[in-house]
Automatic annotation (TrEMBL):
Gene3D superfamilies associated with the record: 1.10.150.130, Intergrase catalytic core (1.10.443.10)
Compartment(s) where it occurs, according to its Swiss-Prot or TrEMBL record: Cytoplasm
Gene Ontology molecular function: DNA binding
Domain Core-binding (CB): from-to ranges: 1-91
Protein name per Swiss-Prot or TrEMBL: Tyrosine-type recombinase/integrase
GO term, biological process aspect, one: cell division
Ranges of residues in domain Tyr recombinase: 113-295
Keywords: Cell cycle, Cell division, Chromosome partition, Cytoplasm, DNA integration, DNA recombination, DNA-binding
TM segment ranges: none
Source organism: Alloacidobacterium dinghuense
Predominant localisation class: cytoplasm
Length: 305
């Protein structure tokens, strides 16, 4: 399979991040290895039977990194979407007779975009149960900022600026701020609350090195995206919690703010979304929030003020 032309086209026309291109390349290399294993010589031979085998292979393959068998539905969906995009590109540019069997699998394996926050009780157990200061700060920062894992990877030790803000009555509030390059290569500002800043200070006090990266691996190099994902998975196993990926920490961040009555327009900018409809998915409020809003409204109607 020759897919570098597809990746170049995708990067140029979709303005996606280098991390996204790496993910697409990895997905296509994974499928290419599967074809070689099956003895399928080219994409012209890819039909419904091959795709069914591919899906079953992904569902049954060993996944020791997360201590289970098979890829998650989300991972399978992503790999199938990458393959479908590649097949459509090939059909449009060089092989008009090529059939894309993925079009018939779209509904079954379509991506579920509903937010999947971690349950609050599990989130509390996770953040309170992590004994490594680096890991506790890492996971807490995910929940406190809503950063994507690719954005967290960018952070340096000086990426967070601590400022003091004096309120109208002379009260002082400590704020943490920073900037990252998000999707579409757009700059995005993020904020860090006081409790997370305390962890930041504790963690930085342990750093005697001069490496600029905020998070270091055991080898004292910049912590990779994969290592961050593995860290969360490892702590979930150690604390007997259900497996969760780091993107669910971002979902937890947005859901928490939605239930704290934040404006959807503000949350849109905090999340770095281009569409308000994407942000509004998080406003499926908890029952307690709905009840609070209902009784407040009823009290207003009863008293007339």
């Amino acid at each position: 399979m020759e897919f570098e032309a597809f990746l170049s086209h995708w990067q140029a026309t979709k303005n996606v991040s280098p991390q996204t291109i790496r993910a697409y390349r990895s997905d296509l290399q994974f499928f290419e290895a599967f074809l070689q294993q099956e003895g399928t010589r080219g994409i012209e031979q890819v039909d419904h039977g091959v795709i069914n085998k591919y899906i079953e292979y992904m569902k049954q393959m060993p996944n020791p990194r997360f201590g289970r068998t098979g890829l998650s539905d989300a991972s399978i969906s992503r790999r199938l979407a990458s393959l479908s995009s590649y097949l459509e590109f090939t059909r449009a540019t060089s092989n008009h007779q090529l059939h894309n069997p993925m079009l018939d699998f779209t509904r079954r394996w379509s991506k579920n975009d509903d937010p999947k926050p971690i349950e609050e009780v599990d989130l509390d157990r996770l953040l309170s149960g992590v004994t490594s200061l680096r890991d506790r700060f890492l996971l807490t920062l995910f929940v406190a900022t809503g950063l994507r894992v690719s954005e967290m990877y960018q952070l340096n030790r000086d990426s967070i600026t601590i400022e003091e803000e004096v309120g109208d009555i002379g009260d002082v509030r400590v704020l943490g701020t920073g900037e990252v390059i998000g999707k579409g290569n757009k700059k995005r500002r993020f904020f860090v609350d006081y409790e997370t800043l305390r962890l930041y200070a504790e963690y930085m006090a342990t750093r005697a090195d001069e490496t600029p990266a905020l998070f270091l691996s055991e080898r004292k190099q910049r912590m990779s995206v994969r290592a961050m994902e593995y860290t969360l998975a490892a702590w979930c196993r150690k604390l007997s919690l259900s497996h969760a990926n780091v993107h669910r920490l971002r979902h937890s961040y947005a859901t928490r703010l939605a239930n704290a009555n934040i404006s959807s327009l503000i949350l849109k900018d905090l999340m770095g979304h281009t569409s308000l409809s994407t942000t509004q998915r998080y406003f499926k409020l908890h029952d307690t929030t709905l009840a609070r809003g209902y009784f407040s409204a009823m009290e207003f109607l009863r008293t007339g003020s």
